[in-house]
Amino acid sequence: MILLSLLRDKFKGMPWGIITTSYAIILIGLYNLYSATNATVNSMRFYDQITFILLGTLAALFWGVFLELKSIERLSLLGYILVCIMLLSVDIFGRSAKGAERWLVIGPIRLQPSEFAKFIIIIMVAQSFNMMKGFAEFSLLSLWRQILLVALPFLLILAQPDLGTASLVLLISGLQIATVKVRGKSILTLLIITISCIILAWNFVLYDYQKQRVLTFINPMLDPRGSGYHSIQSMIAVGSGGLWGQGFGQGTQARLNFLPERHTDFAFSVWAEEHGFVGCILLIFLFSALIIQIFQTADRARDSFSALVSVGVGGFFLFHFIINISMVLGVFPVVGVPLSFFSYGGTHMITALSCIGLVVAVERKRHLSTTSF
Which residue, 7, 37, 78, 186, shows the most beta carbons closer than 10 Å to its own? Predict the structure, then answer.
C-alpha cells in the first residue's frame, strides 16, 4: 500500500494530452514501419523499433517522473561534458555511415551522440539563463556563455560531418535564446555574423557533396540519378498517394524499392503514398497538437528554467517536423533529419522520448507548486 501511494504521488500532474499524442504518433509510425520494411518477410527492424520505444519510455520515466527538475539542472553540466567526450570520440574513432562518421560503437550497442547533444543543449541553455536572473536585457557580449556552450558541440558535429544535426542544434538553442529579451543591435550583429559564416562555410567548410545537395535542392533534375534521386522519388511517392492513398503495403515506390531510406528519412513519403492527403492531414494534425501543447506548457511554467526547457523541447519537435516534411516534399535539401516518433532509429527515439520526459518534469513541478498553495 505504501509503495502504491508513493507511485500515485509520482504520477500526479502528468500532461496526459502530450503523452497520448506522442504515443499516437509512435503507434502510427510502427504501423507505417511494418509496411515500409515489408515486416512480414523481414521483421528485424520492426521489433528493433519496439525495443527502442520501450527504452525511450524508460528514459522518459527517468527524466520526467523519478528525477526532480532541480536534479536535472544539477546533472546538466556532467551530461554536457559526457556528450562532448562522446562527440569527440566519434570524430576520432567513430564508425562511418553514408560518408560521415556519426556512430559510436560499444560492443553490440551503436549510439549516435549527436542526437544526445540536442537533448543536453536544451537543458544547458536553460540552465545558463537561469543563472543570469539579474539581467533585464541581454547584449551579444552577455550571451558569451550560451554561444560557447552551443559552439563546442556544433563544431564537433559539423566535423563528422553532419550538417543537418549541427544546424538543428543551432536552431533549437536559437529559439530558446530568442525567447529572452535581446537588444536590437545585438540581433542585427548576430544576423551579419550568421550571413558571413554561411558565405565562409560555402567557400571553405562545406564538402562538395553538401554543396551538390543544395544545388540539387534548387533543381533536382541537375542530378536525377545521384543526389537528386531521393527528392524526385519522394515527390513521386507523395504525389501518387492522391486523396485516400494506395492502401497499406500497396505503395509502388516503397514496394518496388524505388524510394531510398523509406524507413528513416523518407518514412513520411511511404505514409503519404499509402494513405494519401487524408492520412497526411491526420499526421500533421497530431504533430501540430503535440507542438502546441508543449509550447503551452512553456507559457504556464512558473520559472525561467522550466519555460526555456519547454521552449527547447517544442523547438526540437517543431524543427524536426518542418525540415523532414520539407525535405520529403522537395522544398528543402536532403540533410538526413528524421521525423520524430515516426522514423526508424534508436538513438533518436530515445532522445525524443527523453525530451517528452523533460516536459513531464516541468508540468509535474507546476502541478505540485499549484497544489501546495
Answer: 37
